[in-house]
Amino acid sequence: MSAKANLDVLNRQVAYSGEGISVKSLETEIHQERTVQDSKVDELKGLRERNVEIQGAMADELKKLRRFSDYLNGTAHKGGFLAGLKEVLSYIPGLKGLALSQRSIEELLKAQYHLSARRVKEAAEYVDTLKQSEQDLYKEIDRINVKIVEMAKNERSALGYVLELKGVQEQLKAEEQAAEAGSVEQRDIQANADKVHAKLAEHSTNVLLYGSAEERYARLKDNTRKLAETIRNLANDIQQYTTASSIKLDMASAQIQAIGRAADAAEVMLEMKRSLDVMTESMNVTTQFVSDTQMFFRSNLDTFIKDLETFDETTTGLLEENLKKSREIEDARIKAAIDKAVAQQQQSAPAGA
Amino acid sequence: MSIVALHTQALVLPEAELYLDLLGRALQAARLNNAFPDRRQLQNSVDTLRDGLRHGVYGELYVDARAGLPNLASFTRVRTDHELAAASLARMGARGELEARRDEAEVFARMADRHAYLERLQRLELAPVDQHRVLLRRHDPASGTAAFRIELTKLDASGVYLRLLIELTQVSSLWRRKVVDLEADGETAAASEGFRAMVYRCADLDAETLFVRLHGVEGVQVERVARGVIGPALYSLPVGGGVAVRRTMEAPDDALGRAWHAWSLGAGAAETERPEMMVAFATDCAAGEVREEKSNDPVSPLLAERLGPQEGERYRSLRGRYPFKVFKDRKFVATSGLKAMVQGVCAAAGTRNIVYDLRPA
Known about the structure:
heterodimer; A: mainly alpha; rod-shaped; B: alpha+beta; nine-stranded mixed sheet; two-stranded antiparallel sheet; flat
């Protein structure tokens, strides 16, 4: 007869670490872990979009600053000087459409420089936000690893217990076969076999649950690690770009001012040139007029002189005629006055004789 | 130390902190009035730059190699930090949490330091890079006359930091475009874009030239043009126990710059192992109220004194048309090692200038 089955195993309390497991509790925990991950993914999406936007804007603005420099270096004069100036000035916010700005180019460039510096700084701050997220995710990975180890240990405990129970179950089966059918012993053995079966069911479920939990946590850890790596790569990309842009802006600050000043000087020269052009135009017109007049006189001088002589002769004739007539009129007046005086004298003379 | 970019030198700790400390104390010692840019704002910018270096927010300080003052990059750094401070602090969260995680990773230590830097910075008013203000002095609607005061504070392309004050009277007319517009409330004024641009472009001209230039504008009668200029700052900072020296590399080619160059190469510099600094503060005024036309600036004599006889005659004839006289002055703040150099420059020019002491900390 074989040794009796050791039923102490039925009374043993299997110590699983953690808070106990069920399908519901496992789903809840995995869901919580996934929520953390999902929020990081959303954050990452937002940061990535913002990064693309910022990088695009920064590239644009640095290109504009570069264009100013090229323009004033004389390497971007396609279409002529004024066309080039109009083009670069149109880059400046608020000046689109203006042919030539009244505003100081140095001041505008410095304002643009300030905007660019601010954008670079905003982008650089995202690097720290990303690095902080990366650290949070590594902490999360550590936590998940603890869970994985716990699940693995619990699965091992459950497996060990299940194997023990299986052994007892087989022993009881053999005892049952050896016992008399319908006897008290057989009933007793069957009752214990039922208890063993119940325990087996319970702890087999635990084996499955802990095994499943271990696998799922392991997958979660992998995803979290990938997310952390993605965030790290994004942070490194942004940091590289913002560092390079920041250095470029720092090095270019004096150049920006020098270019602005030169452009303002060019603007003053343009104004001077414009006023000189107007003056030159006036002078040309005047000179042309003088020259034409001179030509006119020269080619018509003989005629003028002749006309003058004619004028002289005619005028002299007229004057003489005039003079003659005036004298005649005067003589007539004098004669009339004398005649009148004589007549009056004759009238008053006989009264005195 | 070499030039790192066009007219740009870089200073790092510890000499950068030494430089900023000297500069800050020079600004205080100079007793600046309102003819100069606001000292308090400039002081705040200098202090913030020093904070930034101490907290590791910035690794270096950029200085204009000609004027010896912090350059556009440095001014812009602290101004953009100020603008972004509120949003950055909100995003970073509480400093306590960052401090608690300081040893966890380098990013938390850096964020905690930056948090401290921004917390202090956001309460300060910093020096502007460019600032225009138009103030109404008097307004007589009956005659259409208004008197204005225009203030321009500017970090000039030459590296100095200056303030330009213009007092003028404008007579408005239907047929005349105004250079300064008065709002309907009769209290707020703004310069027209063209006039503002002209003032900005001409800010580095001397007061006399600017007076003549502005007086030619139709409808405007200029009463006063005054400039207050901070700079150059000439410094010499021994580093590494005096093995190397950081100094202003591209001082201007004038009497002061030449004296500085001679001092840098000569026995004066060799003897000193202390940090030395000299900062100049110049004023230049063209106004009717100036009693005597004179220059007490050893670096900038009157134009009349620099012209030949023929040009001088034409100049005097031209000046006779304008109702102003010119007065120029300059004061200095200098450490003991540079005081003699400054006094020598003033003596050579025949001027009598105030030289305040700049004592080491």
